[in-house]
Amino acid sequence: MRILAITPIRVTDDELVRRQERYDRLAPAGVQVHLDNLADSPDAPRALDTAEQVAASETLLAAQFSTADPSRYDALLPDCVLDPLVGGNHHLPLPLHGISRLTAHHLTGLGGRIGAVARNGAIADELDRKLASYGIVTTAPTAVMDLSFDAIADDAVWAEAVDATISHLDLDAVINACSAVDVSAHGSGPRLVDPTRLALELLGLHAHRAASV
């Protein structure tokens, strides 16, 4: 399965390389992910800190995904746990998958109490709205860490904030609500789930079944 992913924000060249290397590490056999940067424009957000930036990101992603080449790719994947465009009425040239839709449905199917933790309130609010649109019932609203955008690439800062935020939550699993963060072992509390890793594993199973038919 050849997947075209696009960042939800305009990132630096170094950050694009970091995210592509992460996809290369996480992609299972049978899955290849090519990551493109969100096209540069005056409207392209550099972070998702407000509802307006989230909306602008979705509009720009729709335009960029609409030009995807079906001869080069088999599927589309927004590089964002907010699953922009997923579940909407968009006319795209290829199937569109969502990191959080794949992850949340899988965790819900396993049972247990699930929730999520996000960098800021805007992301938390949109994730809760998106999960509700899928019919996913979380045990608690997404917890907020109030971190800056720079924390995404700082594993130590992110891990410390996650530990402090989720250790007391009465949950079985917590979705780490950022597609570009490496999830590491943490202290006590619920299991922290890397949604990008899990989503790619599920897509890998799908690709394997499709190839064996």
The helix-and-strand class reads alpha/beta
C-alpha geometry: globular
Give the assembly state of these chains.
Answer: single chain
Strand residue content: 5-15%
CA(first)-CA(last) distance: 14 Å
Physical arrangement of strands within the biggest beta sheet: 5-4-6-7
Specify the CATH architecture of the largest domain: 3-Layer(aba) Sandwich
Rounded mean pLDDT is 94
Tally of DSSP helical segments:
6
- The overall strand count is 7
Q: pLDDT below 50 for ≥5 consecutive residues: which ranges?
A: none
Q: Roughly how many Å is the radius of gyration?
A: 16 Å
Would you give the CATH topology of the largest domain? Answer: Rossmann fold
Q: Write the H/E string, N to C.
A: EHEHEHEHEHEEH
Helix content: 25-40%
Characterization of the model:
With 213 residues, the protein is an alpha/beta fold. It folds into 2 domains: 2-98 and 197-212, Rossmann fold (3-Layer(aba) Sandwich), CATH 3.40.50.1860; 100-195. 39% of the residues lie in helices and 13% in strands. The strands form 2 sheets. The chain has a 4-stranded parallel β-sheet with strand order 5-4-6-7, with helices on both faces. It has a 3-stranded parallel β-sheet with strand order 2-1-3. Helix 3 (99-110) packs across helix 6 (195-212).
Topology:
Elements: E1 2-6, H1 13-26, E2 32-36, H2 51-65, E3 75-78, H3 99-110, E4 114-118, H4 121-133, E5 143-144, H5 155-166, E6 173-176, E7 191-193, H6 195-212
Parallel strand pairs: 1-2, 1-3, 4-5, 4-6, 6-7
